[in-house]
Batch of 2 targets.
Target 1
Amino acid sequence: MFFKSKKTTAVTDEADVAASFMSVIDRTQATIQFEPDGTILTANENFLKAVGYSLSEIAGRNHSMFVDRGFVQSDEYRRFWQDLANGKSFTDQFPRVRKDGSVIWIQATYAPYLDAEGKVRKVIKIASDITDRQRGIEGIAEGLRELSSGNLMHRVPSCNAPDIDALGNAFNGAVEQLSVSISAVKEVSSAVERTATEVGQSSADLSHRTESQAATLEQTAAAIEELTSTVRAAADGAREVEVSANDAKSTAENGGKVVGDAIDAMSRIEKSSSQIAQIISVIDDIAFQTNLLALNAGVEAARAGDAGRGFAVVASEVRALAGRAAEAAREINTLIEESSKHVKTGVGLVGLAGDELQKIIQGVAGIHANISEISRGAAEQAITLNEINSGVSHLDSMTQQNAAMVEQSTAASQVLANDAGELARQVALFRTPSDSGAHFGHGPGVATHHAPHRRAS
């Protein structure tokens, strides 16, 4: 019977664990081993299947056969293998070229294998194929680039990686909803732009008409102001004429009274003339009787002779005086008769003048009444025109304010139209399925460009 030491047993157990671990890795991961300079030593079936080669096709060749030709010549690639040869490890995502020229993506760890002395004997790479996942990520990245350029018709293709596919579906749903919203915004912005343009045109037309109306109203206000001044002056003139007519009426009435007084005076003169004529007739009778008495006295004086001579002289003188008195009475009577005729004529004329003056008084009274009516009418017209003038002035002020408001509205509508136009231009940057000839687009399944640090190894 043989006995094993505890140390030998421990080493055996560790070897078994290591063998089991490598077996698990070999079954689940793609592995490949290299010399420190990148020469291929061996690879498992998972790796060979992933790149499409057989082991005999890659053994002895360099790692660079799986790398883009342009990157192989770079300093970064050379430093990568120098660092591995010096014992440094790398874990990252890398693009690799398959036998058919297509590109696969792997999540890999490059780890140097050290001997007992700590020297690098070989490099082991453990990798897993993440091409589907990377394609899904690249699809989403392409979708984001299209979205940033305003393309809302691009859709992310489906992916075999469930979590990435769910992210792509969420992206497509968000873009779809955004597309609907942007389409609605396009329609609204176009409608707003059209409406704002129409409002601007209407406001401009209204502004022009309001300015024209304001100018016309201003002219009308000036004309009404001038007419008001004219009517006010006419009313003042009518009041002055009314005062003058009233004075003329008073003067005519006073004249009528004077004519009446003159007629009364003429009547009294006529009556006095009649009385004087009667007195003259009495005087004439007295003269006639005196003459008769003188004649009788003369006769008696003659009979008396010398004794009556002196009495005869007196009688003769009395007779002569009576004759002169009779002659004067006749002349006075003649004058009085002529004066009476003239007085009668004057009374008639004064009466006619009084009648005409009464007619004049009545006419002046009528004129005064008419002028008073005209004066009242002119005053009322002046008041009415003054009120109209005030109303037109207020309307002119309101029209000026309306013109200013219309001008502000026109400016605001122009700003709105410009803003709506700018909004339409900004929204037009987005391409939606509702645009003419639009169709959904999908990016390429595998990206052909990658960041340089992702191309190392």
Note: The radius of gyration is 74 Å.
Target 2
Amino acid sequence: MTRRWRVLYPLAGLLLLAGCKARQPGRVETVLMSTIKQRVTIRGSEKNPVEATPQEIESGRKTFGQYCMVCHGLDGQNTGVPFADRMSPPVPDLGSPQVQKYSDGQLKRIIDDGIFPSGMPASRGILGDDEVWRIVLYLRHLPQKGSLGEPAVYGGSSR
């Protein structure tokens, strides 16, 4: 092998790896995904039929903890999620004003159908309607950011 190829192969490998680096999404990506999410209006007028009692909110927290905490953290605000801001688009803080202004029906739709092409998976067929509505209740009553600790899956001590 010539000296030239000994230099070019590692250089090509480094360039390939540099091209695979995850970067923060640009403004266009962020605006586009925010617009798509805000336009979720089909079934968006549905009202949550589950009464907001402490027991129902706790049930929503438990279901959220089983299905949603890997991306959103135990508190719904990305606490302890190492990749939340590096996704494209970033994993939203569910306590943020942008998310909290969605109607209950819009939140249910997002949970049911997911958001393509983001990393938000659909839960239809996995979670029942009552479970999803309870998650929506929990989203409306999120605890203080960081108060539940970090998910154990990321080395935290879940409470």
Note: The longest helix spans residues 3-19.
